[in-house]
Amino acid sequence: MxxxxxxxxGAGPAGMLLSHLLDRAGIDNVVLEQQSRSYVLGRIRxxxxxxxxxxxxxxxxxxxxxxAEGHVHDTINxxxxxxxxxxxxxxxxxxxxxxxxxxxRIQEDLYTAADERGARVVFQAQDVQLHDIASDHPSVTFDxxxxxxxxxxxxxxxxxxxxxxxxxxxxxxVRTDYDKVYPFGWLGILSxxxxxxxxxxxxxxxGFALCSMRNPMLSRYYVQAPLTDRIEDWSDxxxxxxxxxxxxxxxxxxxxxxxxxxxxxxxxxxxxSEPMRWGNLFLAGDAAxxxxxxxxxxxxxxxxxxxxxxxxxxxxxxxxxxxxxxxxATALRRxxxxxxxxxxxxxLLHRFPDQTAFDQRAQxxxxxxxxxxxxxxxxxxxxxxxxxxx
Length: 390
Ligand SMILES: Cc1cc2nc3c(=O)[nH]c(=O)nc-3n(C[C@H](O)[C@H](O)[C@H](O)COP(=O)(O)OP(=O)(O)OC[C@H]3O[C@@H](n4cnc5c(N)ncnc54)[C@H](O)[C@@H]3O)c2cc1C
Description:
It contains 12 helices and 20 strands. Strand 14 and strand 15 form a beta hairpin. The strands form 4 sheets. It has an 8-stranded mixed β-sheet with strand order 6-5-14-15-16-13-17-20. Strands 8-2-1-12-19-18 form a 6-stranded mixed β-sheet, covered by helices on one side. The chain folds into 2 domains: 225 residues, FAD/NAD(P)-binding domain (3-Layer(bba) Sandwich), CATH 3.50.50; 124 residues, D-Amino Acid Oxidase, Chain A, domain 2. The chain is an alpha+beta fold. Bound molecules: flavin-adenine dinucleotide.
């Protein structure tokens, strides 16, 4: 006897989208989340959606608010040497656009949809442990404060993010972790001000900066900062001064400043854990990989994994198990493409503390090459807007 077919660990975007897609196919599932619902909804994270992510959400019936409130982007802008701005138009090059729509909104949409269908989501599930995952009768134990409970299932989906437990249940002799830690972080603020109307990346001698948007009255700005800095070191005034200094005058003069409503310092890291399947455990999203946010890929990769995994589970219950057999290899092909692109964008646009004069000239040359080559711009656009699904 099983309590459910698929036990999903984590109610972030990956876990909730998987639950949504499985429910639509009539596959019973239960989601276990260690935090409260309000805590998950309060996390400020990603905001730029690839065209494939937008299509996946629309196909899943989750596109209405996104289409009404999201902001369609078709241009990536890169400033460097304090004056030049390179604009790469993804629509002209590929016929595809991106969407600025905050992860917080997607999370709200997923929880609203879960309420409407009566999904089983257990919040504040503590001490989640996975059992017998290499067998045909896996189970998950957890504690909601009323004692330990056991959920038996056929498959476990580990969607519990980088700090989750699922990945650690894959034995060391099976698992390989690939890691790269960058020697700086991103100091980000949210401000209820009209955003700069363009998505703008800046490479400046004082460090990287990014101007992005969540909606017409919500701006998201970042500056590269040392990881040794503390949030208290960064008053709003200091943040705005630093941001404006790093932008070309043509753009800094258009920035509307105001009080921040959120401020955070995020470390930058690339990490991939292989394989993404062991026994009847399947990893998806940040549980298996994280990327620096420079290429705006983290959330998009989580959606791609879930797309592959949901299709494989649906095919399995229809009698075809090949998708589950191939899941790890299929997902990892896309993951490594995004990991390489995010590393390249990070290397191109940041100042590294140990950067030599040679490194500096090579970086400037790379920017000049991208600015002068239609092929290089097409490659940037193709990867930024998102490669087609396998
Ligand atoms: C500051 C910041 C900025 C970012 N900016 C961008 C961006 O601009 N573009 C982009 O694409 N990506 C960005 N990302 C990455 C993006 O937010 C993630 O890739 C995305 O959240 C991954 O979704 P997920 O569901 O896999 O993981 P998560 O969102 O981490 O969700 C995992 C869930 O599992 C729960 N959980 C963890 N451990 C357990 C446990 N033991 N038991 C039960 N539940 C557990 C967690 O509470 C969480 O709710 C950013 C991330 C951060 C932190």
